[in-house]
Amino acid sequence: MSALLLRDIRLAARAGGSAMLALAFFASVATLVPLGVGPDLALLARIAGGVLWIAAVLAALLALDRLFQADFEDGSLDMIALSPLSLESVAAAKIAAHWLTTGLPLALLSPLLAVLFGVKTIAALFVSLLVGTPAVSAIGAVGAGLTMSIRRGGLILPLIVLPLLAPAVIFGAGAAVGSAGALPLLGAFSFAACVLSPFATAAAVRLNLGS
Amino acid sequence: MLFRGLSFRVETGRALSLEGANGSGKTSLLRMLAGFLAPAEGAIRFGDVADGEERGKFVGWLGHHDAVKAQMSVRENLDFFAQLYASEAGDTLDALGLARLAELPGQYLSAGQKKRVALARLKLTKRPLWLMDEPLASLDAAGKKIAADLVAAHCAGGGIAVVATHEPLGIDCDRLVLA
Amino acid sequence: MLRYANPTRFMQLSTPILPWLGGAALVLLAVGLTLGLSVPPDYQQGETVRVMFLHVPAAWTAMMAYGLMAVASLVGLVWRHPLADSAAKAIAPLGALFTALGLVTGSLWGRPMWGAWWVWDGRLTSFLLLLFLYLGYIALWNAIEDETRAARAAGILALVGAVNLPVIEFSVDWWTTLHQGESILRKGGPLIASVYLWPLFAMALGYTFLFLTLWTMRIQTEILTRRARSLMLAGEL
Lengths: 211, 179, 237
Fold this sequence. Notes:
Order of helices and strands of chain C: HHHHHH
Shape of chain A: elongated
Shape of chain C: globular
Number of domains of chain A: 1
Order of helices and strands of chain A: HHHHHHHHHH
Largest sheet of chain A: none
Number of strands of chain A: 0
Oligomer: heterotrimer
Strand content of chain C: under 5%
Strand content of chain A: under 5%
Number of helices of chain C: 6
Distance between the termini of chain C: 21 Å
Distance between the termini of chain A: 25 Å
């Protein structure tokens, strides 16, 4: 399983760096919002938690449609599926690789953006992203698995995944500003998503391999 | 519906070539044998193993696409699958004449060279049931000889090979023609 | 052979029932509307409380429809019953319609009180997300070419949605209390006088029968479409 994980990370690093893309997107949104709503730091600080969380979700979604599609299209997924590794393990490895190359970098960059927004609760924002972005990868993976065989699957993926991510955004943004009880709820949601998603994702992969 | 009343048997040590026009279902049949697809009726058995996913553990797959990652070198590509299949790349590089290409990233390889990488990958899986979809495509004469020898050696060693192909393999095998 | 007997049996069973379902729907809706128009106006909301009789049952029906869709999907995935797949597919546009209806009536109901066409009330927001779940489901069905695979993929999505739906509701609820939003659209207003319950139940039953009628009709259409398609493929049409 670690072999798959490492290989996916290596590919992400070499093939135009999805981490860099996600970070660039994150930073763009963070720069455009003040341009859109004005430089009032009090206002920016108030909306920062929500805005940065939304930016993180959208940035994580960017690389998601290729999660399985790349291996599906070039035939690697067939060979991976026939290996001793179970499809659930494959899904888990893919989710982990996705988080390590999008969610984690986003969380690490967030303190810098927090400063740009005049956010006082920097640590809370960082922790909320760290804890919550695995849920984005996990739930996103189910969508990626379902849409891997669709030609323009990337268009339908956000529609499928975003309603399911509502709890993550709600609890995540809440935790980012330090609302009471948000972080445990976020943690529970993330944990449940990470535990359950490999099964649903594996089912989706199995379904699409039979074609 | 692709096939009706299809029934055949392959003994260990034998190769079976699947022939037929494009669209006759060769790839689908291979995918059924591998366990990706389930037949609407009937059963497929490998020894005692009837379940599709279980059967997959015995399958060495060479598909239509070469599955060679452009950004990884030949060695890295093979090592990845070697780790996945709990095996080693070992001498497969030499056996397929890829030794001097080992450090080259996949994007610089020709189609024929990628096919050889795919064959090397098949060899290192050390699986008994080889399912191959057009293994000779893109190969030059030398490559075809290597491929044919590979299959022959595999069968001689007690394996089975089911090969969908447009051109004759050049080895002693049974033939199944899909109309 | 057995595989095609069931859709046929469904057609045989459902065709005579259909007029009765439709009739019941009409009767119940008529009763509900009459009662709804005749009950005394709410002391707080005035005449606008009558919109509740359109809104609340729509919400209930939309939620129930999603539950049915999830159950049908489960049956389709586990037992591979093609009728279950058709049933699930048939619900989605209806569910989306009832959800949209619920959103519009909810907006109308709240307008006099809020002074705005929309507020991010907890229930309305959850409802909006439900609409997106339906739309995503429909989009997935349409995006995958192979019918069987589309059915299974959509089935997985419906089940994931069904598991997530209570969590979504809970999180939106939490979000509402966090931001001290208006919860005017609670179950039927601050007080449900018993006199309001009768029109509510009548309308709820009416909506349900309407849903069942439309659902049956859609399943029949789906079965006939599949038959026509396979006949065309076999060259007999």
